[in-house]
């Protein structure tokens, strides 16, 4: 048995060596086979790269982006409702705001985020051990810090006060207590700033390395963190460091749907994507909680969960469907992003060869401008190119776009508005509306005047809903905007003070003597 491969598997798993028992006929010549230290691994740049791949693997596993991460975010927003009684009880509990500390969906995300952190720590701690290929070492450390910073942002925005680990925990004495949420955000900021300093632009990667974190990804994520912590000046500064020209520049695509279809992955608007692969079968590893392996192919089941002709576990809320501007409600033009974002009865799919019938769609109907109709999501679904028999269950390879340039513009608009630069805020909003296949009239409009900060805030909330429906940002926006009294009406019917954050999982409380609920 190869000793290095054993150690790599242990370190990538996010568990300690003492929890593993294995046997081998070959004498591997170590004094304590139940306590294999990481000093035996991560001594070369190629090993460090393998460890970094393991951090990405945790992010793309079913406990995070392939499944539970998007569920947790969307269920805590007002973008979605249940498609029917088929939604599993733990997910429905999150949807209605009754989240038990033992909730398995929440627990899965929490555990996977700390696996990301553990794996990233094993990489960052090994920097001094690796003497070859300093440029690759620098990049690996930057990637690990980006992925760890993203994890701490998720923990701070969803749970608040949580433990911070920047060194690998090797035993019970290394348990950490909760740190104040401000400290958790500060750790995310530190990680992302150091990542931005270490990482190349997108042109610094080869064609086989797409999906790795870049300098602009670090700045875009940093903008999110600063905004959520209330620092709009630094958010603006970070976002303005994202180039808009040259080999490392980003621009809006002329076609909105280029951001949600497989054939248009890594386009000019995409800043960071989690990579998935269509394995060519209907198999999904439901137990791939932290990934199938550092470089193994991983599919996503998102297109099954939300598929209009699949399970329809989540469907768009009536609030969301009616948010889009429409001539039916007095707008001068119906926003084409409605049809780009949703499917409804009568729409064509399968490259225009099939028509979505009422009977094809499992579960509940929606109310759109007073009319009852069945609707489902189009973003990230694959039925646009597949027939009913193929697409009814098929874990796919459509990458999850985590950061795109449209969000950068929206976040700049919010930052400028909060800093009193209202004209700049409106300019950023109108850039998004001017996308070639959207071409909505610029603000101000009759329905959305923009003469005051409050009016711009209302236009911003509307524009972000229309542009970024079901992209796992709305629930975080709600938490931030609620604190600033942006909402005339509370968006979540179950909300009461103290329910905006998730409880720490009970298993974590039981295992860590330094924690309490």
Can you characterise this structure?
With 517 residues, the protein is mainly α. Among the domains are: 1-41, no CATH class; 302-394, no CATH class. It is 39% helix and 6% strand. The protein has 18 helices and 10 strands. It has helices at 3-13, 45-60, 68-75, 89-95, 104-124, 134-159, 181-198, 215-228, 232-239, 302-305, 318-321, 337-341, 388-391, 405-418, 422-433, 453-468, 474-483, 506-511; strands at 80-82, 270-274, 314-316, 342-344, 348-349, 354-355, 366-368, 371-373, 375-377, 400-404. The strands form 5 sheets. Strands 1-3 form a two-stranded antiparallel ribbon. A hairpin with a 2-residue loop joins strand 7 and strand 8. Helix 9 (232-239) packs antiparallel against helix 14 (405-418). It is globular, with a radius of gyration of 23 Å. The model is unreliable at 1-30 (pLDDT under 50).
For the structure shown, list the relevant keywords.
517 residues, mainly alpha, two-stranded antiparallel ribbon, 18 helices
Can you describe this structure in just a few lines?
Helix content is 39%, strand content 6%. The chain has helices at residues 3-13, 45-60, 68-75, 89-95, 104-124, 134-159, 181-198, 215-228, 232-239, 302-305, 318-321, 337-341, 388-391, 405-418, 422-433, 453-468, 474-483, 506-511, and strands at 80-82, 270-274, 314-316, 342-344, 348-349, 354-355, 366-368, 371-373, 375-377, 400-404.
